[in-house]
Design goal:
This protein is of the alpha/beta class. It has 12 helices and 14 strands. The chain has an 8-stranded mixed β-sheet with strand order 3-2-1-4-5-6-7-8, with helices on both faces. Strand 1, helix 3 and strand 2 form a beta-alpha-beta unit. Helix 3 packs across helix 10. Bound molecules: zinc ion (ZN).
């Protein structure tokens, strides 16, 4: 066995057998923003055998204060986070398998991308995707590690299907938008991200090494105060997911096709079906109408006061509006119905 993990193997809870187990483990990271990027780096350095890096966005300059894996070059090139992280992680540890997935996780593809792994990491920034992860996890009996952070406060919890409460026990319904504090409206500090991401990575390692030590404690962090509270959370007796086996988000009966990206002045339009868009062809057409920047994954079309970023799968983000109706009109006008 290579010397790379010598000091990790020396830790008695890991040892030779544990390191071998880590090297054979597969983890999907859903969302490669602040938390996901840092968790992926921790797991990559520790020699987790296979990482699936899933993200729908590209790197932007205002990500860099807290999304530790990315560079200014990534932002200037509009590199998708999944692709950029795959390249950086490969340079860190070429011995593990790295799969980049530039997709938005929806009810149509969640089972494709979140299964076939030993653990799922929550790196998302929205509740709908967390409900989807939760339902895939319960349906396929895959443990998942949730975390979230706003400002300097965060929370983390590991869910073990069949053994602990689930995410919907914790939060039965999506909170109304006006009650949600988001990273954009409340800000977030990179140093706080580091603490929660490391905690989350630690939970992944414990889940892989000792899956039978499952417990259902919610940890709530206040990193300004320097405090951690632990709350024991029993399963809710009426929970739709873990008690009734009803998967509303995974069957598409809950969730939306146009989603306002809170605080970003933008709306995401989900494509219907799976039609692939030829971005180069679209670029030729749109260059007659405004500024176009294009790479193999993403096209950005700017025509003030709006801009539209289009991915090859047809998904788009319309900037310059927070109205789903207006965003659909802009999308239909420039990209197509
Ligand atoms: Zn539940």
């Amino acid at each position: 066995m290579s010397d790379r993990y010598r000091r990790q193997r020396a830790f008695h809870q890991v040892g030779e057998a544990g390191q071998k187990r880590l090297s054979e483990s597969r983890v999907a990271i859903c969302g490669m923003g602040a938390l996901g990027a840092m968790v992926s780096e921790r797991l990559c350095r520790m020699g987790i055998g296979s990482l699936r890096l899933i993200d729908r966005d590209w790197v932007e300059l205002d990500n860099l204060p807290r999304q530790a894996l990315y560079t200014t070059h990534d932002a200037l090139e509009l590199r998708p986070k999944a692709i950029a992280s795959q390249a950086h992680l490969l340079a860190i540890n070429p011995d593990i398998a790295l799969e980049a997935v530039v997709e938005d996780i929806t009810f149509e593809n969640a089972e494709q991308w979140l299964t076939g792994v030993d653990c799922i990491v929550d790196g998302t920034d929205n509740f709908e995707t967390r409900y989807l992860i939760n339902e895939v996890a319960w349906k396929h009996k895959i443990p998942w590690v949730h975390a979230g952070i706003v400002g300097v406060s965060g929370q983390a919890m590991t869910f073990f299907p069949g053994k602990t409460a689930c995410f919907r026990c914790l939060l039965p319904d999506v909170p109304p938008i006006e009650q949600m504090q988001t990273c954009d409206s409340a800000g977030v500090l990179g140093a706080a991200v580091g603490v929660i991401a490391s905690w989350q990575a630690m939970d992944v390692v414990k889940t892989l090494l000792q899956p039978d030590t499952a417990d259902s404690q919610l940890r709530v962090f206040d990193l300004w105060e320097g405090s951690v509270r632990k709350l024991r959370l029993p399963a809710a007796s009426q929970c739709w997911v873990c008690q009734k086996g009803q998967y509303d988000f995974l069957t598409g009966s809950a969730g939306a096709l146009a989603r306002v990206l809170c605080g970003r002045g933008a709306v995401q339009i989900q494509s219907k079906g799976r039609d692939t868009i030829r971005l180069e062809d679209l670029a030729v057409r749109l260059r007659l109408e405004g500024d176009v920047q294009v790479n193999p994954y993403l096209l950005r079309f700017s025509r003030p006061p709006h801009s539209v970023s289009v991915f090859a799968d047809g998904r788009a983000i319309v900037h310059g509006t927070e109205s789903p109706d207006e965003a659909r009109k802009i999308y239909t006008r420039w990209i197509g119905g």
